[in-house]
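Posting this for the archive.
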Amino acid sequence: MTEKPVQKIESTCLQGGLTPVDEWKTPETSARRSLKDALLHILAQIRAGVVQEDETFESLDNLPELAQSELQGLAPQPDFPKLADALWSALEASRSVARSSRDVTFLVAPPFSGVRSALEYFPELQAGRSSGTDQWSLIAPPENLLLDDQGARDWWDRQDLSRPWVIPELADFWLRHLSGLALIRELLRRVAAGGLAPGLIGCSSWCWQFWSSYFGDTHLAPLTPAPMTATMLGDWFECLASGTGGQAVIARMADDGFYVLPTANPVQGKKHKHSGFLRDLASVARGNPGVALAIWRRSLRARPEDNPAMENLAEEPVKDASCARCWVVPFDQLSLPAVPQIQGDSIGLVLHALLLHEGLNTSFIELVTGVQEPQLGFVLSRLARSELIEQVESSDCWKVTAPGYPSIRRHLQSWGFPVDMF
């Protein structure tokens, strides 16, 4: 029987709804953007190769940055409870068209998409919609991930999978080590066998790339958020900036004054030139909203370039005092973190491991990569100075950064590492 397509349930934070993983496609890009990306990648590599060991990352433009309070107002972090609600509606829609008879749904997404944070709100969200045994429980991983098969069976036996449950991130349940595979292996066996209560498993695209071939004959039918196009990003950025107060935002290119936001003409009946920045942003971020937002935040400035041609653009045609205004650095001037050239393969091993596991502490990095101190310390320090990785507050856990992700993914692919499908 032919499966029906997944019904699209859209909201500003989940535009395009959910789509099957095998139908996901990157946003269209122009040949001009592709050539520029290749050139900028080469230039970034040259720059990274000549940067001194003690030199930190610096932006290429000299325009004044926005104050943190202004930046938070113009480009705040997403509302994850709202995203959780949108995901729930989209999942309900997918079940209504009977795409899969399975009770357990896999929701696969690239890093920084916000899915993990949204799923952490699921039990709280469902508490107001159901009662008793229908309430969802959150399954957290054990402290010890190095279990044998029997230990993994015993641990899962202690988890209550007889009522609805959710795992925000499957990558938290394993280590790429002979002794660190049993928990996911046992979970996938139970999912394939059936008989579990309705469940939802969030899984990073890198973790999925590793494990999806493990049960190749099992039809798990994972879903993923549709990629964000330029139009979708524009709508989302406007929504984020408006918040609950309905504040409008005007964002213009710092070099030529072309409009980025609003995506529609700010004055009715009068056409304004619009920039292709959002199209380029959607391409560079590969439709990933979290990466796009991180780059967008880095691109915003307080004033335009000192250019005589810009003098008449200081005053906006819209006089509404509640309208926020900012300027956008062109991609050609926006310096994003670039992977430095380091002899040996240790840098690739570390970056790949951090993506596979959605972050690791130093001892686990040693365990899964084989890179030992003091070499590991040198690699982590260099990557941190390059703004490619960061340490989670009050934790020893290292994670890749959203602005550095495009460069990291490109390099891992060029170095022959298996990369995700996004």
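Confidence is low (pLDDT under 50) at residues 1-9, 50-58. The longest helix spans residues 31-50.
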